[in-house]
Amino acid sequence: MELVNKYAWLLVTIHQAGRITFEEINQKWQEDWEENKPLPLRTFHNWKEAVQRMFNLNIDCDRRTNEYYISTPKALERDGLRRWLLETLSLVALLRENSTLSPRILLEEVPSAQQHLSEIIAAMKADRRLQVGYRSFRHTEVYSFEVEPYCIKCFKQRWYMLARSVAEDRLRVYALDRICDLEVLKGEKFSLPKSFSAADYFAEYFGIIPAEDVELEEVVLKVSATQSQYLRTLPLHASQEETESGDEESCLFTYHLRPTYDFSQQILSLGSEAKVLKPQWLREEIAEEVRTMWAMYKEKN
């Protein structure tokens, strides 16, 4: 694990610098890791080769200036996983350098990452089926079944697995924190369909719940000027467009997606800061939910 941390340190150092000489890398190494203990040139090259293999990118050297740089930066930009890994590693490096501040740096916990994630990834890599013991929030008993793991996704501090249920012969989503038992089966391998793309599968949805019976819609939200600033910096969905500034007090945002339960809950979480203008059925659905909530709060208990 210590060696992986050093690989991560090297990648983050080169990426953040843009272009950097070995002498500058060596100086930073002594500042961050080992005082008065230089980084051997051979070790540096071994680490560089390992980083290139791990992240499938190229680190080249400009012989005119002897500066090292990532020659394929767009590979990090296009690949969501590698970009996420780099951001995570950058954070790990930052926290390591400032470990004395750990009581003052608060992070969100993702409990479901502690169980079963490594086994599922191993099964995905080997194209092996999983025997799953699963207890949903709606039932007390544990159900056991076989699945073929297609992909995993993190959403709102929970990890989920999209898998084909062998018995039902259809794709379903399973929350990792509801898995009681899990076993990677040693039997026949399954074949992931060549046409399957995890990104494409979820592209038309917000969140984790796919619903093919919900039509693809153009959704227009009228959002307060203050909330609009949050949506500009952290869009709700990849299709988000600011279609109209409206007036000084509001802005219009347009989305092209299937408005499932997760999306409705997200709109409701914005309270009076957002209003659905279209489609009409979603506007009425949100309004009915608001009326139900109001009726509940009018009750004395």
Estimated structural class? alpha+beta
Order of secondary-structure elements: HEHHEEHHHEEEEEHEHEEHEH
Q: Helix content range of the residues, please?
A: 25-40%
Count of DSSP H/I helices: 10
> Which word captures the global form?
globular
- Approximately how much beta-strand content do the residues carry? 25-35%
Kindly report the average pLDDT value: 87
What gap, in angstroms, lies between the N and C termini? 54 Å
Which stretches of 5+ consecutive residues score pLDDT under 50? none
Sheet with most strands: 5 strands, antiparallel
Based on CA atoms alone, the radius of gyration comes out at 24 Å
The number of E-state strands comes to: 12
Strand numbers in spatial order across the main sheet: 7-6-5-4-8
Give me the oligomer status: single chain
